[in-house]
Specification:
The protein has 312 residues and is of the alpha+beta class. It is 26% helix and 34% strand. The strands form four sheets. The protein has a six-stranded mixed beta sheet with strand order 1-2-3-5-6-8. The chain has a five-stranded antiparallel beta sheet with strand order 12-13-14-15-16. It has a three-stranded antiparallel beta sheet with strand order 9-10-11, covered by helices on one side. The longest helix has 18 residues.
Length: 312
């Protein structure tokens, strides 16, 4: 027997409230029965778990929907165009969809910041004003407190920096470089994570925003560009045993993600490390250096590695 729309909505809100209980930093006021046209309430995010008014960081508008279906990461959720336009006017919304047919209902979300909404509305297939419904990608809400709090913290930060540009045509890097404007400002990346390497995961998921702050400006403007292909480089001192003697290498760690990185020993040898839940894949690469001393060092390094079958 299929559920009524009222029952679906009530179940969705119940499961969302249960999921949000995992964070001690939030207070939720989510209504049932669509008392408002496009809002279902707010989430209040606090600096600490005491939740005093003085510690309130932000009141986040939310919309909650239930779907009597299974979650499919390749299938978006349809949102009315005029609702997206309203969300843009209000500075964004955290949009939740609860898929109720899964063995354990899946709570998903979309962080609809002003920039995200503008990109959705101006997407190749959505530009026509007679487009009534637009498909929006949803992803599972994290089920641990730290990552859950980061969803709210990053939404708050993005909303803060983007709300004032809701009705401004956003520029891209290309349009900046092609303009006659003197580019004497600075490009900025803003994100909140558990550690600095988390920035790579944000880039990979398309959630890392780029900003440009002209010289003398008080605030940075969000740019249309998403940063996908980001790599980080870090110098690190490593001690390696070569023929019984310890050698110190000033290596360069090149990170694609926190679990996929290359260690360059600057002697023609480099090691790529790929970690997953089951194993670690290590790939050694070698090329002859043009510098004789480094070429010799690289060969000794390879021979020692073959002999002892370990590096550290």
């Amino acid at each position: 027997m299929s559920k009524s729309s009222k029952q679906i909505e009530e179940d969705a809100i119940d499961y969302l409230k249960l999921a949000l209980k995992k964070s001690k930093h939030i207070h939720r006021e989510i209504s049932e029965g669509d008392r408002e046209p496009i809002w279902d309430g707010h989430i209040y995010f606090y600096k600490n778990t005491v939740k005093k008014n003085i510690d309130l960081v932000e009141r986040i508008p939310v919309q909650v929907k239930g779907k009597d279906d299974h979650y499919n990461k390749n299938k978006g959720y349809s949102i009315k165009r005029n609702n997206l336009e309203h969300y843009l006017n209000e500075g964004g919304v955290l949009y939740f969809v609860v898929y109720l047919k899964d063995e354990t209902p899946t709570v998903t979300y979309a962080s609809l910041t002003p920039k995200v909404i503008k990109k959705i509305l101006h997407g190749k297939n959505n530009k026509k004003t007679n487009t009534i419904n637009i498909s929006v990608t949803m992803k599972p809400l994290p089920d641990n407190e730290v990552e859950l709090n980061l969803v709210f913290q990053n939404f708050i930060q993005k909303r803060k920096y983007q709300k004032g540009f809701a009705h401004v045509e956003l520029r891209s890097q290309e349009s900046l470089f092609n303009s006659s404007e003197n580019l004497d400002g600075e490009f900025q990346i803003k994100f909140i994570g558990k550690e600095y390497l988390d920035i790579l995961e944000y880039a990979k998921s398309g959630e890392l925003d780029l900003y440009y702050k002209p010289k003398g400006a008080t605030i940075a403007e969000p740019l249309l560009d998403d940063i996908f292909d980001l790599q980080l480089f870090k110098e690190n001192e490593m001690h390696v045993q070569i023929q019984g003697n310890e050698k110190v290498y000033q290596t360069i760690f090149k990170y694609k993600t926190k679990n996929d990185y290359t260690i360059d020993f600057r002697n023609g040898c480099s090691i790529n490390v790929q970690e997953n839940l089951e194993n670690i894949l290590i790939t050694l690469k070698f090329s002859f250096s043009n510098v004789l001393s480094k070429r010799i060092d690289g060969l000794e390094f390879i021979l020692e590695l073959q002999k002892i079958k370990e590096l550290f």
